[in-house]
Amino acid sequence: MKRQLILENGEVFIGKAIGAKCTNDGEVVFNTGMTGYQEILSDPSYCGQIVTLTYPLIGNYGINRDDFESINPAVAGLIVKQSADVPSHWRSEMSLDQLLQNKNIPGLEGIDTRRLTKIIRVHGTLKGRICDMDIDVNEAVQELKQTVLPTDQVSKVSTKASYTSPGNGPRVVLVDFGAKKGILRDCIKQQFDVVVVPHHTTAEEILRLQPDGVLLSNGPGNPKDVPHAIEMVKGILGKVPIFGICLGHQLLALACGGDTEKMRFGHRGSNHPVKDLTTGKFMMTSQNHSFTVRPESLKDTDLKVTHIAVNDGTIEGMRHTKYSAFSVQFHPEASPGPEDSSILFDQFLLDIKTFKKAGIQYA
Known about the structure:
By secondary structure, the protein is of the alpha/beta class. It is 24% helix and 31% strand. It folds into two domains: 145 residues, Carbamoyl-phosphate synthase small subunit, N-terminal domain (Glucose Oxidase, domain 1), CATH 3.50.30; 206 residues, Rossmann fold (3-Layer(aba) Sandwich), CATH 3.40.50. The mean pLDDT is 97. Composed of two chains; the small (or glutamine) chain promotes the hydrolysis of glutamine to ammonia, which is used by the large (or ammonia) chain to synthesize carbamoyl phosphate. Tetramer of heterodimers (alpha,beta)4. This is Carbamoyl phosphate synthase small chain.
């Protein structure tokens, strides 16, 4: 069965339908990872986006029960060059097509994903629609141009209620803006006593939990669409150690007086080189973000840049010069991707111990 992808600039791609037989609109983006399609599909940060995978062979090793980053994927659609009908791996429990059908995600295969990626690189991320062949292209283009992308992605993927993952170490409050399971897994490795709270939790409510540290998770969309989270970060800054990841990194910048902006096509993949300005060393990182911190906006703040992207020089890490707070734009928990930067969870633990040794009390 043929289906089509219609872009807001009038470009049309016709391919074979996979997954759910429904029509979905979304922001069309691309990911350059060669593996990790299951983790990508279930990453809450892709909420409302149609993901194009640039590697041509997808689904080869199937889907298993352990590699999900969330229970219910929020991705709007998937586009691949070729989807494996018969996966081959001892852990495989279903095919990619079966997963897409089970989770009601429309997909498209057999199009020129290289050409689509080049279009996105030139024009930036574009709104698109995966739909049947009987949809009028001109009408769809006009509708896409008039469509305003939603601003409530975080509320869709954040936990609705607090829950705990008990541990024998320091208590860490994980603020869930769309947290990947990998972050919680790395917290468990550190034996943190984790309390996961919803995105709208206030600074006062967090401090009442008497945390030893606060972890600001990844999440979808524009950080300026969650102003309550910016106020929360302002309320805990200096009172408890903070570690921000991805969206959490951007929220820390905004809370400290910095600014963010949307990138042309973002960073999405598991092979992004980053330089640590403190050590001079390089690491390969997993990334997924549309927004970045504006370097010039940090001049009058107390934030110091600690990491930069090798490919384009964008800010990849910061540390507060007065308070115990640091953040990174990339994903130290990987999932999928290299684990070069997982040591940052060790750094968070060290910050917590140093803070406690100093005997600073909650204000």
